[in-house]
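A common beginner's mistake is to predict each chain separately and then try to dock the pieces by hand. The better habit, illustrated here, is to supply every component at once so that their relative placement is modeled jointly.
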Amino acid sequence: MKEKILTVLITAGILVLTMPPARAISEAEVKKDIEEFQGFFLKRFPGLSLEDYVDGVNALPQYAERRANWELLMEFPPYETEMDKAAEEWVKPFANGKSFDDCALAPATVYPIYDAASDGLRTLIGDINACLAANGKKPIRNVKRGKMARLVAHYRSRFNGQRMAVDYSDPGARRWYEKGRQHYWAKRGQLNFSCAGCHVQNAGNKLRGDVLSAGLGHGVGFPVYRTQWAISGKPWGTIHRRYSGCFQQVRAKPFKAQSDVYKALELYEAIMNTGVPLKVPSQRQ
Amino acid sequence: MASTKMKIKKDKSGGHLVMVLVKHPMETGNRKDKKSGKKVPAHFVQTIVFSHNGEVVAQAHLGPAVSKNPLTQILLTGSKSGDTVAVHWTDNKGQSGGTETAVK
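With all components supplied together, the output reads:
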């Protein structure tokens, strides 16, 4: 009897010591990350306030020569007709009479949201598709371009001017944040670049004929209407479309849109942009 | 299909900057349609006429070298609040369009 108890106690003891605890970094560490990240850019570009970063690369002093062109283009924003179309698509009722306004969507400033029940991340796109499924409609398959990007642009634009405020109080959220942080700073691809290598270390510097944007401001303007993509007839892109593009540009195999890696990256960037106001959609080259 | 948008801004020189966007395909006549393989016929804006209070002040003669959705801009002098600025364009197929705005 005594032996049995001892065996059980020892086994339990070994299990407790060898099983990795489901720990997460502290809220204080995330807060420190945000301060360091934002502080780095505010110091690097002293003339810019936090709000200026919503314009992305157009706000950087190194882009000054091209900014005049962008401002002229923005006199008549190229996405206007598309946004009108998006507004119509959003209010169009489903077969059961409901529309997207009846979906239980959170404010755009708090996505991605940690879902404790599934230990996963909820993105706006995931929630829109979940709403379609709940109303007896097929979810949208193409989550990088076209209709989905338009719908997301319309919804997010309702929160323009409001500041990013993703919640990371749950340790599960911080575990996802850590994954995203690791991906952001890890080198990848044949060219062996990390996101940070270009968008932190070399923000404002030239990459061939283009100026690299700052990591601060990434995502607050998405979905983006790109001239480069407009040429091939698919101007709209969600942030996961751009992630795929960036991966391909460093010759790394891209992940699928709405995959865990991209969601984690999206969470990391959203948290790094805490306090930056939304400006949706954005127009970039 | 084609539409005209106009914006008038106060310029620091004292006059007004008039910006006009004509939404137009501006086909050169040399582009081949990807599906049919045939050349898309030429369809481009030929003239844009600007009028200030009914008087023609500027004319732009465009051709197939100008790309899609041309944006033209003129600097109007001697303009004041309440004046009307009108723009009218015609293309090689005889279609036309235009718009009119008052200076604020």
